[in-house]
Write a structure and sequence with these properties.
Helix content: 40-55%
Structural class: alpha+beta
Number of helices: 25
Distance between the termini: 89 Å
Number of strands: 13
Shape: elongated
Largest sheet: 4 strands, antiparallel
Strand content: 5-15%
Length: 620
């Protein structure tokens, strides 16, 4: 200990922390393997690395020189190395990661004898399902080593050509060598957990398919840093609001037969949903992909059906065990069976959400340049087809594309466009027209998540006549929308119902209002920043909703309030009143049971689940 006291204060804690090799049992190298690297001090790290390197080199030498004739010899070698008490996966990681950290060869440049056989020996003792978790490690060693491991398994003590691991490695190497297309059996024809009575040949084929599917999925984990950056990975898998935005500017403009000007406006607007590779896994849709296609209850299933119909996309889906051949139904191969569920069910979407391999698959599918599976077409084909099919789904389901070109021209005139001279009086008026179209398009795109279909009185009155184009009219008509938003849900066509019915609908809709944690005007800040702004950051520069609120407060048709409450808690039918803070600090109260509020929309700004501010928007 006297020598130890002379060592610097920097090195001393390291020495105390290390567990030295027992001189009475020099064969046990375990303690040296467990030395933890430190990045707090270069000198400490250097000393630790040197100790570890000597231990690793000695372990390589012992493995290289071992005479392994039977299973007892293998167990004795593990004891010599001091790893007999490791879990099987940890021993495999030791062989494939720690021993190859420096190099895969010994000092003479020759491959470490017995190492591949030892890995195969350990893998053979695991169940098929447990083996799946280690497939990314096998992918990392490369095709050549994988072939060597298969050959080693054929002759290694206790293994041989009939061993499970030889069959696994043979299936994988044959698949990789042939680079063949994986043709999945129909998901209804393969065994599930409670279905073990199928013919042996079908059972065997199913097991092989399952292995290849898990092998292909593992490629995404092994190559994940080529697909997402560490920061993107952190946000996607470890954030409470897991998402991936992608690169919208890299998406090709879709081929479409619809109005090109309208298509450009809508495609540009949907960039706020992300790119054709975007992921969202934190909201009620469970799993969303692309430019706003929601899984549960949304438009993702029809998109997957159309992509699956393309043979080049289908082979990629099949390679990772996804069957989208049936309308409104998705099937996915799990570790031990197929699951199939309708698109309205959470089951399959939750499986994807909880499977990092499949999430990375969808990102790679949208960006294709980082796809670790073999492509049967050039990358540009996948980018263009995906873009075209995503936009085709938008056109098919979005109410903005039911508007005839003549009405679009009329809407331009509503915002001041001069058809005679083909000019806009000001750039701001042209911008307002474009934002009006984009706002309506985004509303239509968003509604199916909440089971809403059709124009919902956003564009037309009860007689089927289009409203005059204005952001204000869209806000008023959109008051009949999702219950999850803080907004009046009542029918908003003025004169559609008598006064009493209108008031009843208005009051009842307020009762259904649910607090949310965003700070929206009409929409949440994540999807609709280009319209309402991010109120948490006071972004208020020339945005259409904000402009309408300012104009409305100037002409008295918009009331800004701090609080809303029942007029009489004992008589709910009397409705609500809002509290308005005056410039002198006093509070005035306006009762919302007046006729001028019929058809009005209520919008809240929430902060920490409390109303910070709100607006009553009425007809001017």
């Amino acid at each position: 200990m006297s020598d130890l006291k002379k060592i610097s204060s920097i090195i001393k804690p390291l020495i105390q922390k290390m567990r030295p090799i027992n001189p009475q049992a020099p064969a046990n190298l375990q303690d040296s393997y467990l030395v933890e690297s430190s990045k707090d001090n270069n000198k400490i790290e250097s000393n630790q690395t040197a100790v570890e390197r000597r231990s690793i080199n000695e372990a390589k030498k012992r493995i290289n020189e071992a005479n392994l004739q039977n299973a007892q010899d293998v167990e004795a070698l593990k004891k010599q190395l001091g790893i007999e008490h490791y879990s099987t996966p940890d021993r495999i990681r030791f062989y494939l990661e720690r021993l190859q950290k420096e190099s895969t060869t010994n000092n003479n440049g020759n491959t470490i004898a017995n190492l591949d056989g030892l890995v195969a020996y350990e893998l053979n003792g695991m169940s098929m399902e447990d083996t799946y978790s280690l497939l990314p490690l096998l992918i990392g060693i490369g095709d050549q080593r994988l072939n060597q491991m298969r050959n080693s398994a054929q002759v290694f003590p206790g293994l041989g050509a009939n061993s499970q691991i030889f069959k696994i490695l043979h299936t994988i190497t044959a698949y990789e060598h042939q680079r063949s297309e994986l043709l999945l059996l129909p998901s209804e024809a393969v065994p599930t957990q409670n279905n073990n009575f199928l013919p042996p040949d079908i059972m065997e084929q199913s097991k092989k398919e399952q292995l290849i599917v898990m092998w292909n999925r593992s490629k995404f984990l092994a190559k994940k840093h080529f697909i997402v950056t560490p920061a993107q990975e952190e946000r996607l898998f470890r954030s409470s609001q897991g998402s991936y935005g992608g690169h919208p500017d890299n998406d090709p403009f879709p081929t479409t037969t619809t109005n090109t000007e309208l298509a450009k406006l809508v495609w540009d607007e949907f960039r706020y949903e992300g790119s054709c590779a975007s992921i969202n896994i934190w909201d009620n849709a469970i799993f969303s992909w692309g430019r706003g296609f929601a899984g549960k209850g949304g438009g993702l299933m029809p998109l997957l059906n159309n992509l699956y119909a393309d043979p080049h996309f289908r082979r990629l889906f099949q390679a990772v065990g996804i069957d989208a051949s049936q309308k409104n139904s998705l099937a996915i191969l799990t570790n031990n069976s197929w699951i199939r569920a309708p698109a309205s069910s959470p089951e399959t979407w939750n499986y994807i959400k909880g499977n990092p391999s499949l999430i990375l698959f969808f990102i790679a599918l949208g960006e294709i340049k980082n796809m670790p599976l073999t492509l049967s077409e050039k990358p540009g084909y996948y980018l263009k087809t995906n873009s075209d099919l995503q936009f085709a789904e938008v056109v098919k389901t979005n109410g903005i594309f039911t508007v005839p070109d003549s009405q679009l021209e009329q809407w331009k005139a509503d915002f001041g466009y001069d058809h005679a001279t083909k000019t806009w009086p000001t750039a701001d008026q042209e911008k307002e027209y474009k934002q009006f179209v984009q706002l309506n398009a985004h509303i239509f795109h968003w509604l199916p998540v909440f089971g809403k279909k059709g124009p919902m009185n956003i564009l037309m009155d009860k007689n089927g006549k289009y409203y005059k184009a204005s952001i204000r009219n869209t806000l008023i008509q959109f008051a009949d929308r999702a219950a999850a938003d803080p907004i009046n849900q009542g029918l908003t066509d003025l004169d559609l119902l008598n006064n009493n019915q209108q008031e009843t609908i208005f009051y009842n809709s307020l009762l259904q209002t649910k607090p949310i944690t965003f700070q929206p005007l009409i929409m949440d800040r994540g999807h609709f920043m280009s319209f309402g702004g991010d109120m948490s950051k006071n972004v208020r520069v020339n945005l259409p909703v904000e402009n309408e609120l300012k104009k409305g407060m100037a002409d008295g048709s918009v009331i800004e309030f701090e609080r809303i409450d029942l007029i009489d808690h004992g008589q709910r039918h009397l409705g609500y009143q809002v509290y308005i803070r005056q410039q002198d600090g006093s509070m005035s109260v306006v009762k919302l049971n007046q006729k001028k509020f019929q058809g009005a929309a209520i919008y809240y700004i929430f902060e920490k689940n409390a109303i910070k501010k709100g607006y009553v928007i009425t007809v001017p």
